[in-house]
């Protein structure tokens, strides 16, 4: 019979103390990155499995976190959250946690789901996605002292709770600057209707960059719900104006694909999210560090569960422009 792999076995293999292995399993944020990676590699190599029942009795936690699966839209931008969930599941497992997935039709329905889940399971906390102005979900959890962290900012009060987000404005600013530097002056923005926190932030990056180069963005902005057909409609409308744009910065890859279709390949187009479709067709797009964002969400939530000093923590990550053939 194969010898049982214990924390002591992992510690000896990784050449660290047993306390260090325990810290990696229960409080990974306090362990140096290099040491944590060495221990995680030892755990994977040796096939170590923690005794969850014993750990729950020792720590008073279930080591179970919950996150919502967003409804599928057009099959393009849905892949963004898929990558985030994959990164979150991987990061949680490395820290000794499991992830429960749930569905909800909207924010109010999600609150009902919170109530049901908390009544049925011993959850340690939630990771929320898709934040917006006046988010009722975060208020509900905070009022009941349920630990949570969000992927996305509380747009009306950034210091309200801990969050991880990507600098959306910096992403569209990079895309706009790239187009300006390659000679474009009439650069349009195809975004979502006003009022979306993320959409407004991406629009602001385009607008501020245009003005910084003394270019007038007036009349070059269109908004529509996400989708290829909607992006094509917005682009056609802009292309029929007396002084049409020569390039498009889009709030998503779906809208960018529509703009690309409407322009017939004759205009420069950039998207946002660097989806597999963008990679397949050569669409220039802004890439979000989703795996890093997921890992930081897990770190912040565990930091809170470990009884860290009160206060909120905010992490703003930088995106990068992936230049391909369309711009």
Automatic annotation (TrEMBL):
Keyword hit for Transcription regulation: yes
Keyword ATP-binding: no
InterPro entries: HTH_LacI (IPR000843), LacI/GalR-like_sensor (IPR046335), Lambda_DNA-bd_dom_sf (IPR010982), Peripla_BP_I (IPR028082)
Chain ranges of the HTH lacI-type domain: 5-59
Pfam families in the cross-refs: LacI, Peripla_BP_3
Gene3D superfamilies recorded: 3.40.50.2300, lambda repressor-like DNA-binding domains (1.10.260.40)
Signal peptide start and end residues: none
Domain of life, per lineage: Bacteria
Keywords: DNA-binding, Transcription, Transcription regulation
Matches recorded under PANTHER family: HTH-TYPE TRANSCRIPTIONAL REGULATOR GALS (PTHR30146:SF109), LACI-RELATED TRANSCRIPTIONAL REPRESSOR (PTHR30146)
Protein name: Alanine racemase
């Amino acid at each position: 019979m194969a010898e049982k792999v214990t924390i002591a076995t992992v510690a000896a293999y990784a050449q660290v103390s047993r306390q260090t292995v325990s810290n990696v399993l229960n409080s990974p944020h306090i362990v140096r990155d290099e040491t944590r990676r060495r221990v995680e590699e030892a755990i994977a190599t040796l096939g170590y499995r923690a005794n969850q029942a014993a750990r729950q009795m020792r720590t008073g936690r279930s080591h179970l976190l919950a996150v919502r699966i967003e409804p599928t839209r057009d099959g393009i931008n849905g892949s963004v959250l898929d990558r985030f969930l994959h990164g979150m599941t991987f990061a949680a497992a490395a820290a000794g946690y499991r992830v429960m997935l749930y569905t909800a039709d909207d924010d109010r329905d999600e609150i009902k789901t919170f109530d049901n889940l908390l009544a049925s399971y011993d959850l340690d906390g939630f990771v929320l996605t898709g934040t917006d102005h006046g988010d009722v979900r975060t208020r509900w959890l905070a009022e009941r002292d349920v630990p949570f962290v969000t992927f996305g900012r509380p747009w009306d009060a950034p210091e309200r709770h801990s969050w991880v987000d990507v600098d959306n404005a910096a992403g569209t600013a990079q895309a706009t600057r790239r187009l300006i530097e390659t000679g474009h002056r009439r650069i349009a923005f195809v975004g979502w209707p006003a009022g979306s926190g993320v959409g407004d932030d991406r629009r602001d990056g385009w607008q501020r960059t245009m003005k910084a180069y003394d270019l007038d963005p007036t009349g070059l902005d269109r908004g529509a719900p996400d989708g290829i057909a909607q992006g094509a409609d917005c682009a056609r409308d802009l292309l029929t104006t007396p002084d049409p744009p020569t390039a498009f910065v889009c709030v998503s890859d779906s809208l960018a694909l529509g703009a690309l279709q409407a322009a017939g390949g004759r205009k420069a187009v950039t998207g946002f999210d660097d989806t597999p479709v963008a990679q397949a067709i050569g669409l220039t797009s802004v890439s979000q560090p989703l795996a890093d964002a997921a890992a930081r969400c897990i770190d912040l939530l565990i930091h809170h569960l470990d009884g860290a000093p009160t206060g909120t923590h905010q992490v703003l990550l930088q995106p990068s422009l992936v230049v391909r053939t369309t711009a």
